[in-house]
């Protein structure tokens, strides 16, 4: 079977997808959307606190099929929206890290003094953590930084479209235990969603149970916000509890 035949087969399986320009336009709309509030409301850092800058890469692309039954059940609906083949890159942080050990996260990290921008930081860290080729990533823009009290970082989310995807994996096991492309279908499926209330922290957080990991906290808050603003999400049971070991 030729590559063209494979492409036609894939398109027939998921329905006629929207082209890359249309998806990039949707993602660009997030740059002008109301700031994340429900799950990510944070006070500014206290005066005098030593706060470091960081950036994370919210990298959307195409290709990963859903891993869960609930995700597969979403395919017809997402096919009608033209987004059934969209995915996003997430990783599971190593359990030995000082901050956010073992948590699912977007690729990214602290800004180095020599970094020229938040986008540069996000791409540099993503390459180090996942092995992706930054040359194939189309950076759409950056969101305003969000203060994360637990690690004392001002984190800038960088929105991007994966124009030319490359293989990804956990490059450094001291940093990441797992790297995965996660299907949007698995993220928006109501049966994969719930809420977690950490016993040692005064807040609740959404949880996505996507088969290979359970994003929660800062990462889940950003995902929740983005999927809602894009119009891809569905209503879900906000009384359902999902336990997280951390």
Write the SSE topology.
Elements: H1 3-14, H2 20-29, E1 52-62, H3 69-73, H4 75-81, E2 86-93, E3 104-105, E4 108-110, H5 118-130, E5 137-142, E6 146-148, E7 153-162, E8 176-183, H6 184-188, E9 193-196, E10 205-208, H7 217-230
Parallel strand pairs: 1-7
Antiparallel strand pairs: 1-2, 1-4, 2-3, 2-8, 5-7, 6-7, 9-10
Give an overview of the whole structure.
The protein has 246 residues and is an alpha+beta fold. Helix content is 27%, strand content 24%. The chain contains seven helices and ten strands. It has helices at residues 3-14, 20-29, 69-73, 75-81, 118-130, 184-188, 217-230; strands at residues 52-62, 86-93, 104-105, 108-110, 137-142, 146-148, 153-162, 176-183, 193-196, 205-208. Strands 1, 2, 3, 4, 5, 6, 7 and 8 form an eight-stranded mixed sheet that branches. The protein starts with a helix and ends in a 16-residue tail after the last helix.
